[in-house]
Specification:
The protein has 147 residues and is mostly helical. It has one domain. Helix content is 64%, strand content 7%. The chain is built from five helices and three strands, in the order αααβββαα. A three-stranded antiparallel beta sheet has the order 1-2-3, covered by helices on one side. α1 runs antiparallel to α3.
Length: 147
């Protein structure tokens, strides 16, 4: 029913941090998709079968096929970072709610609690990597497509 979400016993600050982390990853993932499309148009045509891990693997593969340069090397580092961050995203979105030792509700994955500071740190990592891919999208990859 309307407003039932307000009965979920989780602090608003914690829920907001979870949501922002997920949102930041979504932006990162779509920057990766657009980088793939810029490198090889049509490479992301069938997104229905693309997990974040498959998008990351595709991006790494495509970037490694580019002519080597300092900008390509930076993009490759960003692609590899994205691939590593997929694991953090999976641990977050596949976590389960539990009661923490302090009585607060929190997400746990494999017995480890996602703390507020960890949520903020992972959101920052997602946003930083997303910005890095966005810079490549509008820098190196824009230069390539205008040739």
């Amino acid at each position: 029913m309307k407003n039932d979400r307000l009965d979920v016993p989780v602090r608003a600050e914690y829920a907001s941090a979870v949501g922002l982390a997920v949102y930041c990853f979504a932006g990162l993932e779509w920057n990766a998709v657009w980088c793939c499309e810029r490198i090889e148009p049509g490479s992301m045509e069938d997104l229905a079968d693309r997990t974040a891990g498959r998008v990351a693997d595709t991006l790494v593969h495509l970037v490694q096929g580019l002519e080597h340069s300092a900008k390509q090397s930076d993009l490759e580092s960003g692609a590899l970072e994205f691939r590593a961050l997929v694991g953090a995203r999976n641990n977050l979105v596949h976590a389960k709610p539990e009661t923490a030792h302090d009585g607060e509700q929190a997400l746990f994955r494999h017995g480890d609690q996602w703390t507020l500071s960890e949520l903020e740190a992972v959101a920052d990592a997602f946003a930083t990597c997303g910005n890095r891919l966005d810079q490549a999208l509008h820098g190196l990859l824009a230069e390539r497509s205008s040739r």
